[in-house]
Amino acid sequence: MKRIYLSSPTMHGEERAFIDEAFDTNWIAPLGPNVDAFEKEMVEYMGEGIHASALSAGTAAIHMALKCLEIKRGDIVFAPSLTFSATVNPVVYVNATPVFIDSEKDTWNMDPEALKKAFEKYPHPAAVLMVHLYGTPARIDEIRSICDEHGVPLVEDAAESLSSTYKGRQTGTFGDIGIISFNGNKIITSSGGGMMLSRNEDYTKKATFLSTQARDPARYYQHSNIGYNYRMSNVVAAIGRGQLKHLEEHKVLKKAIYRQYSEAFKDIPDLSMNPMNPDGDANNWLSCVLIDKQSRVTPDALMDTLDEKCNAETRPIWKPLHLQPVFEGCDYIKAGEEDVCAGIFEHGVCLPSDIKNTPEDMDMIIKTVRELFS
Ligand SMILES: *Cc1c(COP(=O)(O)O)cnc(C)c1O
Q1: Distance 108 CA to ligand 1 centre (A)
Q2: Is 220 exposed, middle or buried (CB count within 10 Å of its CB: 0-12, 13-18, 19+)?
Q3: Tens digit of pLDDT for each residue in 231-254?
Q4: Residue-range domains of the chain with CATH
């Protein structure tokens, strides 16, 4: 039986044409026409006034964002606990200290109430990191206005939400700096890669400068800054350019998967889908379910059953960072008594959300889930 994936690359053909062009012109380097064109095309997609720096990974883009904001040793950075560790690892790269913020049930993203409490305890963080988990936009306006009130810059990790919009505008364009990712399992992929986005061109210029070894403008090699080798390769950008042409089409297919699961499970009292933000239009990168605490079906049983009966790949919800051994000792702020993100982690599952799933694959997954809960 063929494997059904959580979210795997979907290639179309244009990618190979751009790669061939890179080979034919011998632009096999971490610079070149595809890198410039990919930045330009992404900026056009994102909307007016946005600038971009193409980098080797979304993680590198977060690192460069923190460098642009001059976050340093001793600084505090607020970040959601419910996210992939790559959101927060760069905070440690710059020797700053993360303080984790709980999620709200309505979007699974950073809870503005918990964020307010964090500001009461730590009035002067150096930045706030915001994530749009599984593609669902966070409460951007509330979070943005709390940051503005305190004069603290906002970094928007839109790695999972490329093509999701909030009040009609692309996610990734709301922060002082935004980042996107083209890793293998994201909605579009360049095999690996990312971009840093900003309305402030000084930031994206600085990111490009630092990510190309920070060489001063002199004939000889002179350096006044510590540089990084984080620039996107021209071959990688070729794949990204081909994929970008299909981003909207991928979004339509991801949304259809979410809709189909929602429809199929709506009469199962023990199951609910990951929530949507009514102010946004999510890309539904991954469709997830939350299983009622009282249910006799555990997330492990659901994952094992889909693996055994459908050969389908699933994944637990991101394990919250405040529960990770590597972040032991970091502070964690909740709005009230309940640990919301720990509950989502304990009771949630990411379902197969691959846009190459056939109608037969979807029917088999749905039937198997329905049987398990009947
Ligand atoms: C994938 C991901 C990243 C990291 O992006 P890479 O391109 O893999 O480095 C960062 N944050 C979140 C939320 C992600 O899902």
Answers
A1: 17
A2: exposed
A3: 999 999 999 999 999 999 999 999
A4: 14-244 (3.40.640.10), 247-373 (3.90.1150.10)
